[in-house]
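User: Hey, quick favor. My workstation is busy. Could you predict this chain's structure for me?
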Amino acid sequence: MLRKVSLGLLIVLAACGSARVISRNQSGGVIELSGDRGKAMEQAHSQMSGHCGPNNYQIVQEGEEAIGTDTFSREDQATDSAQSRNGRRQSTDSTTTGQTSTRTATAWRVHYQCNGAAGGAPPPGGAPPPPPPPGGGGAPPPPGY
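Assistant: No problem, here it is.
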């Protein structure tokens, strides 16, 4: 029964997806996806829209990236006992076998850029400030003048 519950929980968790912000700045960021990629990507689009504005971002790179290494160690021990036919002697042999392996750990990451963040033209509607009025209507004099 416990095995069925554990298996069911594992399947439910595997069906979920999540998106986690790795880094973010004014011009874009990096989001790491885990679990179900479709559901995680929905969450990533929501986060990118929240950062840059709805449909105001562009994915510039997406894929698996190396994020470190994982090391696995395994040790097996075998014991064998033998007794002579007349029962006077007994011997025990013990063997230990060890194995270590290292692999590159990877994660699926999405790099995005907010539109207009690459130094392009300013967004529309941003008109320059009007010129000062004639007659010296510039900045006010300093205090105490």
